[in-house]
Amino acid sequence: MTTASDGMTIKKQTSFFEVGRGVWGLKDLFVNMYVVQNPQDRTWVLVDAGLKTSAPKIRKMAEQLFGANSRPTAIILTHGHFDHTGSVKTLAEEWDVPVYAHKLELPYLTGRSAYPPPDPSVGGGMMTWMSPLYPKKPIDLGSRVQALPDNGRVPVLPEWEVIFTPGHAPGHISLFRKDDRLLLAGDAFVTTKQESAIAALAQPKVISGPPKYFTCDWEAAAQSVYKLAQLAPRVVGTGHGRHMKGEQMQYELDQLVDHFRERAVPKHGRYVDHPAQANENGVQFVPPALQTSTRTLVAIGLIAAAGVAAVVGMSQHKKRSRGFSGWMK
Which of the chain's ends, N or C, has fewer CB atoms near its CB within 10 Å? Predict the structure, then answer.
């Protein structure tokens, strides 16, 4: 059971979970999205939009929380990677609401630029090896997407502030509510080992750096984690993994800051020594891929193919095969 801010008790029928006052999360396969309610007027906002298969789950969550035909005042994106924008166009058009993102993310949300390519050489597990298969093209939300203001305010969430946390993506943001120190970190850091498919699905709680295979600027990523740790959050919800709170979370986050290079940065990788460069027009420079032998490429390809089969099998076992096949399209 969970309770909305108006005192209504909700029978929990979907897999959503309560993160804090007026904040709920929903996991779809391996990625999280969040709903945030304004206590003053009971309006609500969707933060990130998951996979292509997430729309019906988000609709069901909204109906259970706020009633049939409820719609948000806006959708906010922490960044534009495929696993955070899979259902954004469908839902934004259906609900007829604006989408907000940082101005440095707009090229990837208006069809002008693709992100720097993922780096399968950073290792760490099946999710990394499979990264060349992930959707690469930008989406085009047209005029529906708007830049968040530069003053750190969220137009539709007056209690919250925008924290600019680049590194994992050029215009990545996190959201912070100061009165109870609740942080929605996106992928600036996560609470599982996202490079591992087993960990991504099982989600053992552990504070980790941003997913390695998509992170294109490690110096910026380190500074972003430091910035978030300085906020001293009490509760964190991230793009991947289960929400965490309390002293253990704070200790692990401090440890990640203190040992970021050893714990988060891969020993070798395309972007380790030379970050990608981007501006408001999109990607301007991408370092060359590390040279990989044909034998290694074949091995990675076989591992990725086996990974797809394994995860599909796991998803089918959990009656979620449709979810996995959908997000790969």
Answer: N
Q: Write down all domains in the chain, each with its CATH number in brackets.
A: 2-323 (3.60.15.10)
Residue 1 tokens read as 């059971």
* Alpha-carbon span 206 to 242, nearest angstrom: 9
Q: How far apart are the C-alpha atoms of 69 and 28, rounded to whole Å?
A: 21
> What confidence tens digit (pLDDT) does each residue in 111-123 have?
999 999 999 999 8
Classify residue 216 by its DSSP letter: -
Token duo for residue 212: 């390695």
The DSSP call for residue 186 is E
Task: Output the pTM of the full model.
Answer: 0.87
Mean pLDDT of the chain: 88
Angle made by CA atoms 91, 73, 44, in degrees to the nearest 5: 100
CB 239 within 8 A of CB 84: yes
Question: What does the DSSP assignment read for 152-219?
Answer: SB-TT-TTEEEEE--SSSTT-EEEEETTTTEEEEETSSBBS-TTSHHHHHH-----B-S-TTT---HH
